[in-house]
Amino acid sequence: MIEISCKINLKGYESIGITVTGDDRDTIINEIRDIGDHLAPDDEETKKMITRYINRVFGTQTPEEPAARAADPVPDPAPAKTPEPKQGAFETADKYTKVCESCGAPLVKIDVDICKQFLSGQLLCRTCRDNLTRKGGK
User: Fold this and answer.
1) Residues 61 and 69: beta-carbon distance below 8 Å
2) Is 31 a member of any domain?
3) Mean pLDDT in each 10-residue stretch from start to end of the chain (138 residues)?
4) Domain extent at residue 113
5) What phi and psi values does residue 86 have, to the nearest 5 degrees?
6) What is the pLDDT of residue 97?
7) Burial track 53-64 (b if 16+ CB lie within 10 A, e otherwise)
8) What pLDDT does 15 receive?
């Protein structure tokens, strides 16, 4: 007896789990594909995420599989656009030339502000500040 179980992250704290049990691996995978084909009939984006996951984990379908399931491969979504920061919100490390006095990592404005307030001006990145507080300030 074989059991294959998978959990598909659908974003936004949603996920769906599929568990299929049987005696033949290929039959189980075909059953998972069949279940995936019937999920989210009205939501094209969710259907693409499910199909992409199944194809990534179990491989794309082969010609000997039923023609009903031999859909075109689902393309990966375009990379999400990173929103432009609002002016004055913060400066990125490439725009701010200060570096950590301990490890040399570039600092962003918020790091510098925190250091000025709490560390008497000693410039440290977040990792070095965390390490300093774990050691008890020594």
Assistant:
1) yes
2) yes
3) 86 86 88 88 87 86 53 57 52 63 81 78 82 67
4) 88-138
5) -70, 145
6) 74
7) bbbeebeebeee
8) 87
- Does 133 reside within a domain? yes
| Alpha carbon distance 95, 74 (integer Å) | 39
Domains identified in the chain, total number:
2
Is 74 a domain residue? Answer: no
> pTM for the complete prediction?
0.43
Radius of gyration of the chain (CA): 25
Instruction: State whether 94 and 64 are in the same domain.
Output: no
Can you tell me whether residue 89 is helix, strand or coil?
Answer: coil
| Model pLDDT, residue 77 | 61
User: Do 112 and 64 fall within a single domain?
Assistant: no
**What's the CA gap between 84 and 95, in Å, rounded?**
14
Q: What is the pLDDT of residue 76?
A: 60
- Structural domain contains residue 64: yes
Which of 15, 36, 69 is at the close of a domain?
69
pLDDT score, position 112: 80
